[in-house]
Amino acid sequence: MDTNNNNFSLPVSFQDGDFDTHFKVFYELMANRVTEILLVASPYDAYILEEDGSLATKLINEYRGLNLSRPPRITQAATAAQAMTMLDEKAFHLVIAMPHLDDMDIFDLGRRIKAAHPDLPVVCLAHGVRGVYPPPEGKDCSGIDQFFIWLGDADLLLAIVKSMEDRLNVAADTRRAMVRVLILVEDSPLYTSYLLPLIYKEVVNQTQEVLEESLNQEHRLLKMRARPKILVAKNYEQAISLYRQYSDYLFGIISDTRYPKGGTLTADAGYTFLSEVRQAIYDLPLLLISNEPENKTLAARIPATFLDKNSDALLDKIHHFFRNSLGFGDFIFRRPGGSEIIRAANLKALEEILPSVPDESLLYHAKRNRFSNWIMARSEIALASRLRKARAADFPGADAIRQFIISHIHALRKWRQKGVVVQFNSSDYDPDISDFAKIGNGSLGGKARGLAFVTNLLRKSTDLEQHYPDVTIRVPQTLTITTEGFDAFVAHNGLDPSAITDLSDDDIAAMFLNAGMPPWLDDQLADYLRSVHHPLSVRSSGLLEDVHHHPFTGLYKTYMVPNNHTDFAVRCRQLTSAVKLVYASTWFREPRTFLKGTAYRLRSDQMAVIVQQLVGSRQGGFFYPDISGVARSHNFYPVAPLKAEDGVARIVMGFGRGIPEGEPSVRFSPAHPQVMPQFSKVEDTLANVQRTFWALRLAGMPDDLYFERGVNLEIRHVDDAETEVPVQRLASTYIAAENRIRDTVQVPGSRILTFAPVLKYDTFPLPALLKDLLALGREGMGCPVEFEFSVDLNGDAEKRGTFNILQMRPMSAGQDHLDVAITDTDVARALCYSTEALGHGRKHNIADIVYVRPDTFDPARTPAIARAIAACNETFRKTNRSYLLVGPGRWGSFDRWLGIPVKWHDIDAVGGMVEIRNDQIKADPSHGSHFFHHITANGIPYLTITEGGGDTIRWDRLKALPHRCQDDYLGHITLGHPLIIKCDGRQMRAVVLLENSNPV
User: Fold this and answer.
1) What distance in Å separates the CA atoms of residue 917 and residue 914, rounded to the nearest whole number?
2) 169 partner at 20 to 30 Å CA-CA among 374, 494, 693, 793?
3) Predicted confidence (pLDDT) per residue in 303-332, tens digit
């Protein structure tokens, strides 16, 4: 709620423009670093500084102790002349000069350095105040930026470096990221040298403490850059200047009471300064310090916290000020009288506690802006700024304040983890907030890496949310066990990959199931399950999966877990068993054999595991999504008016397990969803619709979940689910008496899955969304992509449903996309060459050619030719072999004069097809539209050759090949070596090559 807007409605949102926890803004902070220090000191002074060890070592140890990066390097100059020479030869970021130099007064040295290097900070580090501050009469100290007194504590070195860095960066960092500013007003170098290290150590330590709730190690280190800047003022004029310059970013002020004002030491300068600040900012934490205890009365008038410099507990009291006034430490809910009610250690705990906090305590803290201060201490500046603008008086009551704070915390927690892979932490893990978490510090693996990329891509693509406001677009809640888990599992059980070469896959799986999980991994998976209660998929994410040009996809296993057993120990055992079996699949024979044939044969694959929320809803005793599918940004089987670059998608009801195996699905182009050749006639529709679907059984499952089957899903008949909601949403009705299909389920008849409500009537914007996501993925990956997805149509009043991206990868990954580049040599030696080909890939498993003899072909006898092909096909089906089919006109034509009128069952053993256009039949290419689903699902190359043009078919060479048999219609050739069929779907070219053939 803003003071100018009393609208308390939800939801609350954060954008990348806000200062959020996404990392880009942190990289831009602290651009000016002190990495090279010139120490100008006589040999004696240098010895005193280093009497108990190297000065550089002390500074490095301080950096390491506080987990800071890049400690500076110290170079020593023994004289002023040597220092000036060094400054001319090398760039330094800070000069620390000690006063006792034989060849030049330190004040003169400071002025000379500033004359040559005006922006270079110069500080004086003395062993005592005398002769240094105040400067001797007549001495110009304009060349010295700050005076410090060496007290024998290396903390001072850290404070000096950080103080100079803050001066260099404060203007840019407040402008870029609203970084907070803390002002220290102190004219005494002695007290500055004592207080500044205390303040810096407190800020760094406390910042590190609250960073324990950071998302991951990278975030933790980068967020240290957003700690408050500490600026030092030596007099009233400097203090008021800093205040006015950075008033919008002030975090707090610590001020001495007596210091110069108007050139005169003034007893109440601090009181005057803080009183002016208090009038402008009523809730800013202020600390007045003094070595005169009676000034506590002045502090009360401001009001401000008071601290006696002479107190033996000075350090503890500064610590107390940081925790209670500046918001470090736990948020402690108190009653107005001061008694503690409850405390919250982090934002998650605060969100959970707020609903039960008494009104009087909530109002007490809200009126004093304690929530804003506490959240500001966590560098959550966007949220803190919003809360600070809201005033308790603008709300109708305590409940409105409560809901305002809760909704803003929840929105921030959700937004800051969007697109970020966070480290799993059982103490603050929230599956409703965290989209993507990981266990361990190893690699995410290829599949999880692609998902992490997608989450980041979606976060940046705000246009999607604007175009589809009624659709939730996301990656399902995901946990990745990094490769560190696999390595620890193998080491924990002493497993040796070289010892399993003779074992079967079943034996390897049993060995892994009997092995124990590393205790730390077992504990974290149990902690995860305590927070998660929806069904889960456990998927492989091998280090080499989804790598460009290496199709590792499909080699490893996926298991699904209902996660609903009443015994938590059984739930844990089911999850760990699934993880172990995914690990085991890394060592199965097929992946090991495949690996040897790749460029990665010198190494073994490592396995990460994805544990992902299953998309769907419960339907009776089963669980399944409304729609599952695969989308690709390049269509290798475009039928006019479709274009290859329009992309293509396949969808099914239920889980999409059968899509890669070619089970019936609806295939369409997202750009033209109503152009579907497989549904061109009622008979084609009935022949090609989905009759069965995959679902996860939730009830009546044994404790081992049938893991021995490989995948514990069940196949169900659509007819058995006729009354279930997904069928009602997606089906049409076939009316047998009319031989007609109607796009409704409100009439009697047989239900068939046409997905017409989605594809024709836009009940869910699936085609448009797929089109946009394919374009987004292609732009993001820089190549054609494919992704798996699921859709949950259980929308509410505001949403039509949820679109879930399950995996994204380059199109070259996971398929037989080996080298299909067609060279001039290939064209010269080709048996067939087509410039109008469908499909993509390389085939080398076909050793038979069946062709319609051109010398005896008669268009009037095409039905008899079709019967002869069917008889030949039956032989291939029985022997489980495939063949290349070559013939004139349209394959599957209904018009016998335009081609051979075969049905799919007449040629279902075919592995490649060629249709010839010549003077006898000049029909336009059919592209097999009448059995289009089977061609595309099986990846069958489909070549159209126009004789007399740029295409080629070498009939003379074909006839000269050894024939197995020949009749009046057909020739059948069996080769000693398989053909090589190369189909380049991107250029729609293809060649059929004879092995070891030479150009003719």
Assistant:
1) 10
2) 374
3) 999 999 988 888 888 888 888 888 777 888
How would you class 58 by CB atoms within 10 Å of its CB: exposed for 0-12, middle for 13-18, buried for 19 or more?
A: buried
What are the tokens at 163? 């103080």
Instruction: State the CB neighbour count (10 A cutoff) for residue 257.
Output: 24
- Is residue 769 within 8 A of residue 439, CB to CB? The reply is no
First to last CA, the chain: 81
| Mean per-residue pLDDT, 495-503 | 82
Distances in whole angstroms, Cα of residue 941 to Cα of each of 238, 648, 848? 79, 17, 15
Instruction: Give 723's contacts (C-beta < 8 A, 6+ positions apart).
Output: none
Average pLDDT value for residue range 215-228: 61
Nearest to 625 by CA among 714, 549, 695: 695
Contact residues for 4 (Cβ-Cβ < 8 A; gap 6+):
none
Tokens representing residue 461 in the block? 């693509």
pLDDT above 80 for 347: yes
* Alpha-carbon span 934 to 662, nearest angstrom: 8
What separation in angstroms does the CA of 428 have from each of 66, 423, 439, 528, 992?
Answer: 24, 11, 14, 11, 60
Q: How far is the C-alpha of 552 from the C-alpha of 814, rounded, in Å?
A: 6
Angstrom CA distances, 782 to 454, 456, 457, 547, 820, stand at 13, 15, 13, 14, 20
Q: In terms of Cα–Cα distance, which of 875, 941, 888, 882 is closest to 912?
A: 941
**DSSP secondary structure string for all residues of 379-423:** T-HHHHHHHHH--GGGSSSHHHHHHHHHHHHHHHHHHHTTT--EE
- pTM listed for this prediction: 0.69
Q: How far apart are CA 30 and CA 167, in angstroms?
A: 10
Packing angle of the helix pair 189-210, 314-324 (nearest 10 deg)? 50
Helix crossing, 483-492 with 519-531: angle to 10°? 130
pLDDT of res. 565: 92
**10 Å Cβ neighbour count for 115?**
9
Q: State how far Cα 839 lies from the chain centre.
A: 33
d(CA 994, CA 727): 49
- Residue carrying the six token digits 């987004």: 776
Q: How far apart are CA 130 and CA 364, in angstroms?
A: 49
Residues constituting the chain: 1000
Instruction: Report pLDDT digits (tens) over 537-585.
Output: 999 888 767 554 444 555 677 889 999 999 999 999 999 999 999 999 8
If one counts every other C-beta atom within 10 angstroms of the C-beta of residue 107, the result is 21
